[in-house]
Amino acid sequence: MTDIKEESSISIGVLHSHSKGDERLYGRRRAHPLRERQQRLLSYYLPRLKFPISFSETPYSAFGRTPKQIWLEIGFGGGEHSLAQHKANPEIGYIACEVFENGICSLLSSLADSTSDEMEASIPDMLRVWNEDARILIKKLPSESIDRLFLMFPDPWPKARHAKRRFVNADRLPLLAHILKHKAYWHIASDDLTYQEWVKQVMSDQPYFEKILETTTKPQDWPNTRYEQKAIRAGRTPIYWIFQKK
Ligand SMILES: C[S@@+](CC[C@H](N)C(=O)[O-])C[C@H]1O[C@@H](n2cnc3c(N)ncnc32)[C@H](O)[C@@H]1O
């Protein structure tokens, strides 16, 4: 079994698969070498903000205050959506997951920019970062512990032979349904035509989630993401979905 963290130190600018038992993580941990400030954010700020895996059985205790609900975002990219949701919903405990270090640094930098000392920078009570494969955390969370799930512009893996790598997958739905509360919402967005058809197909034939919304008109209270803006600039039309746990 390969350790994702160990591999990350050599995964500069290339696509790596990180074996984790029966599942692999395909994707980049890093696009280009980190600057000194980014290194400091990862070394000194991230450990203070990281969701403690020892609290995975009792996730409500992982925050500075007891949250009213817990929301989980998978693959936050540069963190724009996570930050906006966190700021707009101060009573929500938000767990933001991402493995791409340059993206994680963007989020950390936005949070810590009031000071240059990452050891002293304040930690938000209600936001925690999981900087490893989200699937590791999902497997450890208790049943009915998550009130909302966000999957914004997931890696599309458009080639048919890579379909198993797509996060929306029939095999994964039972576990997602397990951690989500009854009637919890799952937001998904994608601009990729293959992924759009895939979501429609996978989600049309399963017993766990009911479709509440499928639209090309962006819901008003959904914050922008970097990939979304890039897609729109390139002339692609995202689809936005809300599924509700049955
Ligand atoms: C296409 S990007 C979209 C980023 C962001 N949501 C946005 O819309 O700008 C997908 C992101 O998901 C992350 N990702 C993919 N699989 C993941 C996993 N298993 N755990 C955590 N992050 C993951 C990738 O590193 C990548 O940054």
Strand order of the largest sheet: 5-4-3-6-7-9-8
**Main beta sheet:** 7 strands, mixed
From the alpha carbons, calculate the radius of gyration and give it in angstroms: 17 Å
- The chain-level structural class is alpha/beta
**What is the helix fraction of residues, given as a range?**
25-40%
Cα distance spanning the termini: 36 Å
Instruction: Report the bound ligands by name, code or SMILES.
Output: S-adenosylmethionine
Defining traits:
246 residues, Rossmann fold, seven-stranded mixed β-sheet, two-stranded antiparallel sheet, globular, disordered N terminus, binds S-adenosylmethionine
Protein architecture, described:
With 246 residues, the protein is α/β, with parallel strands linked by helices. It has a single domain (4-245), classed as 3-Layer(aba) Sandwich (Rossmann fold). Helices cover 30% and strands 24% of the residues. It has eight helices and nine strands. Strands 5-4-3-6-7-9-8 form a seven-stranded mixed beta sheet, with helices on both faces. Helix 2 crosses helix 4 (101-112). The structure holds S-adenosylmethionine. S-adenosylmethionine (SAM) is lined by residues 25, 27, 74-77, 97-100, 103, 133-135, 152-155, 225-228.
